[in-house]
Amino acid sequence: MKLKNRIGIVTGASAGIGEAIARDLVAQGGTVILNARRKEKLDLLLGELGTEDAAVVVGDCADEQVIDTMFDAAREQFGRGQVEANLVVVNAGRGLNGSVVTSDTSEWEAMIRTNLLGAARLIRTAAKRMLAEIERDAARGIHWTKQPRDIVVLGSTVGRHVSPFSSMYGSTKFAVNSLAEAARRELGPKGIRVSLIEPGFVVSEFQGVAGYQEEWLKATFERIGPVLEPRDIAEAVVAITSKPAHVHWGDLVMRGTRQDYP
Ligand SMILES: NC(=O)c1ccc[n+]([C@@H]2O[C@H](COP(=O)([O-])OP(=O)(O)OC[C@H]3O[C@@H](n4cnc5c(N)ncnc54)[C@H](OP(=O)(O)O)[C@@H]3O)[C@@H](O)[C@H]2O)c1
């Protein structure tokens, strides 16, 4: 039980990495708001985790109203109407097969909205709520080290190493990676840990949504596999967020051992 008294929000909790993270937060004694667009998938996960420890907020992760609803639900349902979410996982995202030349331009705006604007708006709201709470606590003599506060951001190895073959997706993750590091520099000194996890290939719905060609994917996984699974990333989230509040593991690149690039 490494995450007792932690109130979580996980976007993209209906599949893959987000679903695995939500499971682990509850398994470790935390509570969690589950967000994604597919209500039926979230309801199934809610059935498994139980309404004492989890609640669902359906909607687009880039919609400011949906984001506010997630934080309000976290405070009302798990914080006795007083305590804010203190473990926010900026996870929802999608890939896009192809380069700036070859990818489907009709998908560009939706991807940029989800991956970049969604991440930026969630980080901003999380930071504002956490900072206000730190101030309130300080006024009551409660030091920030008494309550760990985490914003964990899912970047990517293609947000660190240029991949000409998925350059539009990669450009959103370069932006997310820099946003996370900038937020770390701004918020760390105030007591909020902003951590970036940059996975390589992880088996999930991601590859299908991105539109990767099946033959290429099979050959790639044969060449570099076994690749990571969502639970490997979830384990890292628990490790990062369960450290004492003054200890920060800030930037983690994760690949299957045989993945050379990206
Ligand atoms: N898998 C990989 O190889 C890999 C590698 C590096 C980084 N990542 C990053 O890891 C994160 C999670 O990816 P994954 O592998 O778990 O992918 P996934 O299995 O496709 O899951 C993506 C999740 O995001 C949700 N989502 C997508 N658009 C959304 C929106 N507009 N609003 C709310 N939720 C939305 C999806 O739910 P709904 O469809 O129900 O909304 C789903 O729950 C992403 O940021 C991805 O870029 C993945």
Explain the overall architecture.
- Helices cover 45% and strands 14% of the residues.
- The chain has eight helices and seven strands.
- Strand 5, helix 5 and strand 6 (193-199) form a beta-alpha-beta unit.
- It has helices at residues 16-27, 39-49, 64-78, 108-139, 167-187, 206-210, 214-224, 230-241; strands spanning 7-11, 31-36, 54-58, 87-90, 150-154, 193-199, 251-254.
- It has a seven-stranded parallel beta sheet, sandwiched between helices.
- It has one domain: 3-Layer(aba) Sandwich (Rossmann fold), CATH 3.40.50.
- With 262 residues, it is α/β, with parallel strands linked by helices.
- It binds NADP nicotinamide-adenine-dinucleotide phosphate (NAP).
- Residues 11-18, 35-38, 41, 60-62, 91-94, 114, 154, 156, 199, 201-202, 204-206, 209 line the site of NADP nicotinamide-adenine-dinucleotide phosphate.
Spell out the key features of this protein.
262 residues; alpha/beta; Rossmann fold; 7-stranded parallel sheet; 14% strand; globular; binds NADP nicotinamide-adenine-dinucleotide phosphate
